[in-house]
Amino acid sequence: WAGETAGESDSACHPNFVHGEDGVDLHRVGPFLAYCEGARGLSWVTVVQESAASKFLTLAELEVYSPLPSPPPQTLPSPSKPPFSPLAPSPPPPLPIPPLPPPLLSPPLPSPPPSSPPPPIKPPPPSPPPCLP
Prior knowledge:
The chain is mostly loops. It has strands at 2-3, 18-20, 32-34, 44-45. Residues 1-21, 66-133 are annotated as: Disordered.
């Protein structure tokens, strides 16, 4: 029986649910399975031998079976990475920038002549004498 305390015998897991493998005489040899529907979270298993004292009961390889957990959701594979390759040769360094040509020098311009004073302003010519008749 499965229960919350040692010796508990009122669970749904009891001798009427014990099964042997196909063709096995339950009164002689095992292995045996006990189906305990609804027995969850129980801490104790009670096994009772109800036969004559001349028989031995040996428990070995006692395992608690439960349904397998659901597999995790399947994830899509990530895009494959290219296979690892040794370091590829690095590209050549950029070409250096050529030096700038020297600035173009033009010959010096001649100095302008010194400025001369403006020409004197001449007075207007005298007016002609008036004409008489």
